[in-house]
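quick one, two chains, predict together pls
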Amino acid sequence: MQSKKVTLKVFRFNADTDYLPYYKTYEMDVGNHEVMLDLLNRVKWEHDGSFSYRRSCRHGICGACGIKVNGKSILACKENAYDMTELFGDELIIDPQSKKRAMKDLIIDKSDFWDKHEAVKPYVEAKIDEHPEHENQISQAEVEGLLDADYCIQCGVCHYACPVVEVNDEFFGPAAFVSAYRFTADSRDEASTERLEATAQMGQGVWDCVKCFECQEACPKDINPIEKITKLHNMQFEQKVAVPNVATRHAEGFVRSMKKHGFLDEADIVVYSEGYLGMYKHLNTARKMIKAGKVHWDDALPWVDNVPKSKNLDEIQKLIEISQTNKL
Amino acid sequence: MSQLHYALYTGCTAKQSTPELLSSTLAVADKLGIKLTILEEASCCGASHLQDFDEFLAHVLNARNICYAEKLGLTMVTICNTCQLNSAMTKEALDSDPVLKARVNEKLAEVGLEYKGSSEIKHFLYAMIDDYGLDAISAKVTIPLSKFNIAPFYGCHNIRPSELHKGENPYVPTSLDNLIEALEGNSVDYESKNKCCGFHVELQANHTSELLAGNAMIDAIDNNADMVVTPCPLCHLKMDTYQDDISSATGRDVEIPVLHMPQMVALALGCSEKEIGLNFHVSKATQIME
């Protein structure tokens, strides 16, 4: 067994008595068998009994012990402490999942997470025969279609790794989208339209996702939340829930551009997504880009075509014609 | 070392709003003696947005692009993080799922193409570092960047998901820092170097977009950066074009030159002003040449 000296800089705060949070430093010999939760336990048991954090199962099941280490969102019971020092060096900075939601040390007010989880109806909604004569069978393929979304333990590790959650209070966040997908993809469920409509709403829904892949990187259960976000986008079109708006037209507008040029028409995609009336928001940016020679004053005129063309454009047009599966 | 030869997938941006990205890439390749054959047949990668509308169609079109690199028997290099990710995602999906590969090839057969999976796909940043080598680049430097503090901004789609970007840790990325040091610049260490610029929601959620870009840029500025450098033209568009909006959203004066990664290399290798193309920037950056 190996061990080494590690310095922990731990976020300390008591919302009832402290005006500002502060960091307290603890040094300890850390063995290569220890997980981050062991280190938190040792701070509490060997240094300061008032140190507070959530913990329960210690087996990556209960989802209580989410924290951040040097900015990386982790489940403390799953992450080996040695691995963390190999990544970040021998000084580890321990933070709560969200500093602005801190209540006592690493314990946060997780109500935003649960409210958003609740908002996507995280349960099967179905009219049930109260006196069934046979079981409700689900095929192997249907279960596999859930893409492991049913493994989510609601630990919030992806939710608090999401940069949009940090700046937009309305945004449901990756974990709620995983739940929305899990139940919408369930063949027994009858609330799929409702769920898809909720996750299609601007501000709260999937269209505000910035596609940073932080959630996929963070998930301790390897669920890949952004894959489910893409599925929800696709399902909105497949199930005709998507209504034409700036975001849906932007996604669909790529096909329009590629049919004409192979490449994206950068000016047209903005005009097509926003509509001519919506362009007033972009006049200032357009003016600056024209001045720098990035775009041309006539790029957005429908009868002018300054866009470079892909060679063998007919192949692209043919492939779109025979492969397109969705419409807006 | 035999001459390196790649198929260059330019993407849309380098052919339209960031012409300086293409000219500086070609100039750098020329100086280093790397041969680039432009894939003129290639289309847009879908930019993660076509994928939201129609994932299968996006796979078909990206597979077609890769087919043309395969025909040349070359590794495909990209100069945009989002092109890199979407091409790599299609490759991963097709190489790991024979059923999907067959479905895609059924469509491609209609235009006389077949996706085989024989070409690698890598961003030009990694082609330079892994294949050409940092020492070899260092040896070509004629104008050391020693007077500049340069903040590397990696851009999400070159580092996440990590399973598609082996060799770079998304939490502690180093490639761009190492490249800056190889050009004798001072790489700025700051927390936001691996964060998101918010480009992809600029249209529908511009406030989110402005805040994400702004938080990262402020972090760079507060750590004494003279410029930000990024391998992604979408990060570049966001951070260069929207500095006014970013300043209003964050309440700070966010003014800093933002360079494409190849522009920075071109600067150190002594490429011409025209090739570097700082005049195409919205935020004033030409002072760097002085």
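The radius of gyration of chain B is 19 Å.
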